[in-house]
Design a protein that fits this description.
mainly alpha; 95 residues; 5 helices
C-alpha cells in the first residue's frame, strides 16, 4: 500500500472514529508533527514514513507538470497541491 492509499484509508477510519481523529490531530502539537504522525500511522498498521509523504507529493506534482504544455518551462506553477500531509489534515479537519 502506498502512502496516498494509506492516508485515504486512514482518513475514512478517522471519519468513523472520533477518538482516532483526535489522536491524529494531536500529532500536530508535537515537536516534530510529521514524524509523530508517521509514527502513529505505523502503530496503526500503515507503513508510512516522512519520505513517503514527500515523495508522493513530488511524484504527483511532476506528473501534473508533465501533463501540461508538454511539461516545459511554460507549465503552470502549482503551489500546495503536492503536499499530501497538509492536504490530509485540511480534509480531516473538515470531517
Amino acid at each position: 500500500m502506498d502512502a496516498v492509499m494509506a492516508l485515504e484509508e486512514l482518513k475514512q477510519k478517522a471519519k468513523q472514529d472520533p477518538d482516532l481523529k483526535k489522536r491524529i490531530m494531536n500529532t500536530r502539537t508535537e515537536t516534530d508533527p510529521m514524524a509523530a504522525f508517521c509514527r502513529l500511522c505505523r502503530e496503526l498498521g500503515y507503513p508510512v514514513y516522512e519520505m513517503d509523504l514527500i515523495q508522493a507529493g513530488e511524484e504527483f506534482y511532476a506528473a501534473i507538470k508533465r501533463s501540461t504544455n508538454g511539461g516545459g518551462e511554460n507549465s503552470p506553477v502549482l503551489e500546495g497541491e503536492d503536499d499530501f500531509y497538509e492536504l490530509f489534515f485540511a480534509e480531516l479537519a473538515d470531517l
